[in-house]
Amino acid sequence: MPKAGIDAVGLLQALEAGINILILVGAAIVFLVTVETRIKRARAIKAIHELRAIAHVIDMHQLTKDPDRVLGKGKETPSSPKRELNAFELMRYLDYCSEMLSVTGKIAALYVQNFNDPVVLDSAEDVETLTIGLSRKIWQKVMILNSASVNLVDKGDKD
After folding, report:
1. Mind listing the pLDDT tens digit for each residue in 16-70?
2. How far apart are CA 44 and CA 108, in angstroms?
3. Domain boundaries in the chain?
């Protein structure tokens, strides 16, 4: 009879060891199956962060392009940047900035078009939302320039 008790303890130890091995093998399989997705996610998120940085650089370049300065409403200070663009050139410049932001948002969408990872899709959507918001700010400046130039033409027609 004592032999049966020892065999039961040995059997339980072997069963526990077998279960631990199965758990570790299962974890290793899950790791290996998901490693490709995690690598792709890391690359995509890195690229999307670069696109976010590009959008902010475009925004920084247009910040000093103030329609009031071109229209003669704003005052210059000694530290003001030199502004050499006329109203038409400024409108074109702002239009180009808006187009670059639009392209940046579309590139973010292209990066994730065949990648159904929710984290990456959210990041790409954030870049698109950012570029749309920045583009709206630019188009407000364009509309100010456009309305001012229409008013100037109307005043010139009446004279």
Report:
1. 999 999 999 999 999 999 898 899 899 999 999 999 999 999 999 888 888 877 7
2. 9
3. 47-158
